[in-house]
Amino acid sequence: MESGSGAVRRHRVLVVEDDPMMAEVIASYLNHAGMLVAVAADGVMALDGFQAFNPDLVILDRMLPRLDGTHVCRKLREQSNVPIILVTALGEQDDRIHGLELGADDYVTKPFSPRELVLRAQALLRRTAGQPVQPQQAPQTRQVEDLVLDLTTRQVTKAGKPLRFTGRERDLLDFFFDHPGETFRKDELMQRVWQWKVGDSSMISVYVRRLREKIETDPANPTILNTIWGVGYRFGPAPN
User: Fold this and answer.
1) Strand, coil or helix: what is 184?
2) How distant, in Å, are the alpha carbons of 160, 173, 187, 189 from that of 200?
3) pLDDT tens-place string over residues 91-131
4) pTM of the predicted structure, to 2 decimals
5) What's the CA gap between 226 and 232, in Å, rounded?
6) What is the rounded CA–CA span in Å between residue 15 and residue 201?
7) Confidence of residue 142 (pLDDT cuts 50, 70, 90)
């Protein structure tokens, strides 16, 4: 089911929620914010709807009939880097962490404010929409070991092979590329990368783990994104 109309290209959001009233409220708020919305009532419909609707963002409930949200998240992440907001019940911290490990970009807990959800959706869409590339001065790349960031295209490669990242993974990696050799605590990263003054710092561990799986030759023994025990994380070698 699709709602909204207009000739101007609008962001497309797939809402996966089995509670019809909740789905209607979310869709209404997103629609009023200028987004085009499709709703799926279970996990199987979500995967089918993703292919048919080609959304720019997915809002995904954790508890779903037929196929639960974590399985849907895993399936979506296998085929796309589309931003995903996971909706979980209050107190399900392990489920939230598991969802982030599977590739979700953000989460909200029930009960939540529909307005907050819209703001989170807009923030994710802004980050993934892409910004105009400005002419760069030399050097044209930044490199740590065999990991290279092209400053013109913003493409990241490892040993010459392009890598793909979710929105929040890329936020964190870009920050590290901008601050090589510096050490940051988890709370510093939360505030400086995403301007979160409060939140669950264990999310940083999740994103670091996900980054290492992509940028390290041996994620269990990292040499690029290092843990400085008792302090935090450092990207690249320590400064001389």
Assistant:
1) strand
2) 35, 19, 9, 12
3) 556 666 776 777 888 888 888 888 889 988 998 888 776 54
4) 0.60
5) 9
6) 27
7) confident
